[in-house]
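Dear Dr. H.,

I hope your travels went smoothly. While you were away I took the liberty of generating a structure for the chain from your last submission, since the lab meeting agenda had it listed for discussion. I wanted you to have the full record in hand beforehand rather than looking at slides cold. The sequence, exactly as received, is reproduced here:
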Amino acid sequence: MRRLGTIGAFAVGIVIVTIAALAGHLLAGHSGKTPTPLAKPFSLAELGSPGRTVSLSAYAGRPLVINFFASTCPPCQRETPLLASFYRSEHGNALVVGIDSADPSATALRWLHAKDVTYPVGLDSAASVTDAYGVTAIPQTLFLNARHQIVRHVFGALTPAELRWWAVSLASAR
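The corresponding predicted structure, in token form, is as follows:
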């Protein structure tokens, strides 16, 4: 019986400490929600366009898809034509930027032409942007809202359903 009293007192103590911590957290103005991370700024040379760059700031105030890929990656070989087709079908309503950190420039250009990629692709030969985003395996895709907060992060190849989700999200935001 005495043991039950000790356990009960301990449980009541935990409840009181928890309530006090939550009250302090709320009074300090915290909502309890984890803030949505912001995309990190970048600027890279645009593949196939000497003197031009691909930068996050160029898309200020506009939702954006950032896709990390390489031509030698089997899932990327399946994903890239899907993403290229989606980009063309959206007629400028869905903005896409590719980031290639694993290919030499000439190899990347040949591959992108073969896959009919028309969205801008930055060459990240030093992997500085890839590293800044913590990308250790490809493909990876980030969906950014107009404030460039990361609203979705897809590890692995995109699916048609994920691209439809993005198109619907964009249409409902207009």
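Two observations you may find useful: Residues 71 and 108 are 7 Å apart (CA to CA). The first strand starts at residue 43 and ends at 46.

With kind regards,
E. W.
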